Amino acid sequence: MKVILREDIENLGKSGELVTVKDGFGRNYLLPRKKAVLASEQNLRQLEHEKAVITARNAKLKGAAEEQAKKVGSIKVTIKRKVGEQDKLFGSVTALDIAEAVASAGQTVDRRAIHLPEPIKTLGNFEVELRLHREVTAKIKVEVAAE
Predict the structure, then answer these.
(1) Which domains can be identified in the chain, with CATH numbers?
(2) For residue 2, what pLDDT is reported?
(3) In whole angstroms, what is the distance from residue 21 CA to residue 11 CA?
(4) Would you say 31 and 3 are in contact if contact means Cβ atoms under 8 Å apart?
(5) What family is it from (predicted)?
(6) Are 144 and 81 spatial neighbours (Cβ–Cβ below 8 Å)?
(7) What are the pLDDT digits (tens) for 94-129?
(8) Which terminal CB of the chain, N or C, has fewer other CB atoms within 10 Å?
């Protein structure tokens, strides 16, 4: 199935691109969520017309992401957890915990923007990457302390 993406989708393409996807993915995920439209003649003509709008919107989103990166980059968050032997945590610190801690510090961050390869399971200082836009990233300093 050929579809035109209406927004950026990781590992698939950028908004405005014409991509080929499996029928089920297009029919059950992309089309109902309005992330893509079918690639018909009329939609292709409309796409050419909307490319300028899409690039302007992407530039605006990138500018907002850069501004947010400046604000968030200076934040240092402390998360307190119960600790067992050898400074191992009971449980772990996840992206949701970091997002809540950043929110309590005064900034809102989507938990899906927090790139945490694996949950934090030990005490210490960590640098966590925020992917605010495909071209804009920021770093947050996270300190995990004993309760």
Answers:
(1) 2-63 (3.40.5.10), 70-146 (3.10.430.100)
(2) 93
(3) 12
(4) yes
(5) Belongs to the bacterial ribosomal protein bL9 family.
(6) yes
(7) 999 999 999 998 888 888 889 998 889 888 899 999
(8) C
The predicted-structure confidence for 27-55, as pLDDT tens digits, reads as follows 999 999 999 999 888 888 888 777 778 78
Beta bridge partners of 141: 76, 127
Number of CB atoms found within 10 A of residue 118's CB = 7
In the block, which residue shows the tokens 């969520």? 33
Residue indicated by tokens 């080929």: 20
In this structure, what token pair is assigned to residue 66? 């850069």
Task: Name the residue type at position 143.
Answer: E
Distance CA 98, CA 102 (A): 6
